[in-house]
Amino acid sequence: MISGSLRALVAAMGAGEGTFWLPSQASETAAEVDASFRLVYWISVFFLALITFLLVFFIVRYRERAGYERQQAPEHNTPLEVFWSVIPTLIVIGLFWSGYRSYLSLAVAPQNTYEILVTGQKWNWQFTYPNGYVDAQLHVPRDTAIKLIMSSQDVIHSFYAPNFRVKRDVIPGRYTQVWFTPLATGEYDVFCTEYCGTSHSAMLSKIVVHEPNEFDAWLEEASDFLTRMPPAEAGQMLYRMRGCKQCHSVDGTVGTGPTLAQLFGTSVSLVGGATVTVEENYLRSSIVDPQSQVVAGFEPVMPTYRGRLKDEEISAIIEYIKTLNQ
Ligand code: CUA
């Protein structure tokens, strides 16, 4: 098959480490995706060179000049037309075959996968592990097929992990999936690739690939943070991991939401004219029912955390906010 030998040829040119066009391959399916890309790439390079050469060659060869007599153009040449119809048809069939094969590998997950729930929201990623622990980073064991079951809290986001060659829209009210098998330990980037509002470009995360025998220990230790840490410290961790930090600064900078610095104990004006004192109950209600008491000058864009943060987690965040007065 044409595509088979071309595949082998192009695979030899630039596989392995990251190249000018493609980042390093961190998943099993990445090699197949890249082979399709390189097939298209080198066929395009070949025809660009061929057509450019012929163009220049004909311009020089058939230019108007002294002693040159113009000739009648031939009207029809059946063998030539068959030739330039059949060859491109074979090429696009080869491209389809290569693309379809890698598409199937990406679309069909194996039977036994480790499943992690992914939630996209304005503007962060949340990864929920089988034991219920939620993290802002995606931790996975190497050499294990990982399946992500993804959904959105608000608008359409798109989960994109270039090193793993996976990218899929994350949609409210519906689940989408991607799967991959990580090949090498390390940290890799995650992006949102669907414009989703003000802080779309800050909707970043990492995939951290662990050694298979170290992953369980990591998960156990990470899940245990509320009992291991003082509440204010646990609250700081939740602030970073659960999407607070994208909108609420702790240094006085005004973001999409009010800053948390020097906030506790002050009086704030709300949309509608009322004034409240920032104490535990106001903070709690702002987390579970953020639309009910919006601070004047801000948009009502915060998603609710009702059912998504446990009571002791909310208390820990409030304890952390108190420390920001010092
Ligand atoms: Cu989420 Cu862009």
CATH architecture of the largest domain: Sandwich
In terms of DSSP E residues, the strand content is 15-25%
Radius of gyration computed on alpha carbons: 28 Å
The major beta sheet can be summarized as:
5 strands, mixed
How many beta-strand elements? 12
Structural class: alpha+beta
**Count of DSSP helices?**
8
Gross morphology: elongated
* Total of domains: 3
Helix content: 25-40%
CATH superfamily of the largest domain: Cupredoxins -  blue copper proteins
Oligomer: single chain
Summarize the structure.
With 326 residues, the protein is an alpha+beta fold. It has eight helices and twelve strands. The chain folds into three domains: 4-107, Helix Hairpins (Orthogonal Bundle), CATH 1.10.287; 114-223, Cupredoxins -  blue copper proteins (Immunoglobulin-like), CATH 2.60.40; 229-323, Cytochrome c-like domain (Cytochrome Bc1 Complex, Chain D, domain 2, Orthogonal Bundle).
Descriptive labels:
326 residues; Helix Hairpins; Immunoglobulin-like; Cytochrome Bc1 Complex, Chain D, domain 2; 3 domains; 5-stranded mixed β-sheet; 8 helices; 18% strand; elongated; binds dinuclear copper ion
